[in-house]
Amino acid sequence: MSLSRIDVISLFPEWIEGLKQLGLTGRALTDGRIELQTWNPRDYASGVHRSVDDRPFGGGPGMVMRPEPLAQAIEAAKSASPSASVVYLSPQGRALDDAGTLELAERPALILVCGRYEGVDQRLIDSLVDEEWSVGDYVLSGGEPAAAILIDAVTRRLPGVLGHSESAVQDSFATGLLDCPHYTRPEHWRDRSVPEVLLSGDHARIDRWRRAQALHRTARLRPDLFRLHELGKEDLRALEEFPEEFLP
């Protein structure tokens, strides 16, 4: 099973609607591989001003999103997509990584809840949210940029979305390592040339070079990831053949 629908609860649906026209998400929507729908909590708010926020109990700066308009928007989305998991995008959530994008891509549907201001009423989270996810240890002005990141990262994991089926498999993090460097034409550019091995036509040797470079790059730039990687026989062979940048 793979993801077929994403609903987004947002006070600024324009943020998400723009994804329908662009890149992989736009193509996936056009091809019918996924459906994307937005819901605005303000449409469910009462009163002349359709207020969706209020001051926090206990005092403090900022405003908090009121639970009822959000709840009604989520429930409307859930009625349209009963099998969806309700995800609140927040700094407290599970960190989104490569394994997480694959896990989410295998859900039947998602409802992404975008917070604003100081966040949302905790009672809403406790009663209607299934899980929380974070795109990084930093604060955004709202959940919409995080939702856009999650949608892009998850959509590209769906079957048939990428132009080449091997692209996702060879991306950074897919193997627990960073990606190797890439080169294209011209062969000589300014004072730099394409590595000789890539011009050799020896695909087995090219694969070993790429593996070695991925190991070198990860050791140099992300030693935390490298320490988690257990070197196999093919890794050792690649590093023996191309050892010059290896950092243990």
Q: Using the 3D structure, state the CATH architecture of the largest domain.
A: 3-Layer(aba) Sandwich
Largest sheet: 5 strands, parallel
Q: Share of helix among residues? A: 25-40%
Radius of gyration: 23 Å
Beta-strand fraction estimate: 15-25%
CATH homologous superfamily descriptor of the largest domain: SPOUT methyltransferase, trefoil knot domain
Uncertain spans = none
State the distance separating the first and last CA atoms: 40 Å
Shape: elongated
How many DSSP-defined strands?
A: 9
What is the CATH domain class of the largest domain?
A: Alpha Beta
CATH topology of the largest domain: Alpha/beta knot
Distinctive features:
Alpha/beta_knot_MTases; EC 2.1.1.228; Alpha/beta knot; tRNA_MeTrfase_TRMD/TRM10; tRNA processing; 5-stranded parallel β-sheet; alpha/beta; 248 residues; two-stranded antiparallel ribbon; elongated; Trp Operon Repressor, Chain A; 2 domains; 38% helix
Protein architecture, described:
There is one protein chain. This protein has helices at residues 13-17, 23-30, 67-80, 98-105, 122-128, 143-155, 167-170, 203-221, 223-228, 233-241, and strands at 5-9, 35-39, 53-54, 64-65, 85-95, 109-114, 131-134, 188-189, 192-193. The protein is an alpha/beta fold and 248 residues long. It folds into two domains: 5-155, SPOUT methyltransferase, trefoil knot domain (Alpha/beta knot, 3-Layer(aba) Sandwich); 172-241, tRNA(m1g37)methyltransferase, domain 2 (Trp Operon Repressor, Chain A, Orthogonal Bundle). The strands form three sheets. It has a five-stranded parallel sheet, sandwiched between helices. It has a two-stranded antiparallel sheet with strand order 3-4. The chain has a two-stranded antiparallel ribbon with strand order 8-9. Strand 8 and strand 9 form a beta hairpin. The chain is elongated, with a radius of gyration of 23 Å.
